[in-house]
Amino acid sequence: ARLGIGYVPEGRGIFPNLSVRENLVMSARAGAGGRRDWDVGRVLDTFPRLAERMDHGGQQLSGGEQQMLSIGRALMTNPDLMILDIRMPDIDGQEVCRIIKADESAAYLPIVLVTAYEERGLRLRALDCAADQLLLAPVNRLELLARVRTQVKRKRYTDYLRMRLEETVEMAILDPLTALHNRRYMTSHLK
Question: Which of 97, 117, 93 minimizes the C-alpha distance to 107?
């Protein structure tokens, strides 16, 4: 998590004696540059089933709910990259990828899917769900590091460009002395 990587292990990696809320809160941390894109509310919006089970312990959840919680815990670290197994129990990694990428502000989060199976059409389905990389296990350590490093750099640069775009738009519509909307903005909005 400190490296900006959200990893969802096959064994789920939740704390069975803690509630859903406690599991999510204890994994919360700021991402690169203090960014906090993901919070408990956003995770619950992404996985509404968890909202219904907030006060239940981890061991009281079904396998699919535990997997959702594990993914939610990874998202709470505000990662620059997610690594998911394509064949997770009860939830398909491709479906998780679709759910996360459907959120406009998470569309830029790189997702690496890992699988031990090379079946026909798998790469095409991974691209279809907007995964950024598909790796076949066993994964070469150096290849994984190179791909992760590239995706994290790309994500951080994209975040930087998006931030600069917001600043540029703000500068284009606000008068720097008064912090009020300038004439160009007013003219275009009064038409």
Answer: 97
- In this predicted model, what pLDDT tens digit does every residue of 30-54 receive, in sequence order? 887 788 889 999 999 988 999 999 9
How far apart, in Å, are the Cα atoms of 13 and each of 66, 83, 164? 9, 14, 37
Displacement of CA 134 from its chain's centroid (Å): 16
Q: Distance between CA 168 and CA 170 in Å, rounded?
A: 5
What is the spatial distance between Cα 4 and Cα 78, in angstroms, rounded to a whole number?
Answer: 7
Q: Residue 136 — φ and ψ, nearest 5°?
A: -95, 130
3-class DSSP assignment, residue 158: helix
Q: What is the pLDDT of residues 117-130, one digit of tens each?
A: 777 777 777 778 88
Judge contact between 58 and 15, C-beta under 8 A.
yes
60 and 2 in contact (C-beta within 8 Å)? Answer: no
Token pair listed for 153: 């750099």
**Chain centre distance of CA 64:** 18
pTM listed for this prediction: 0.78
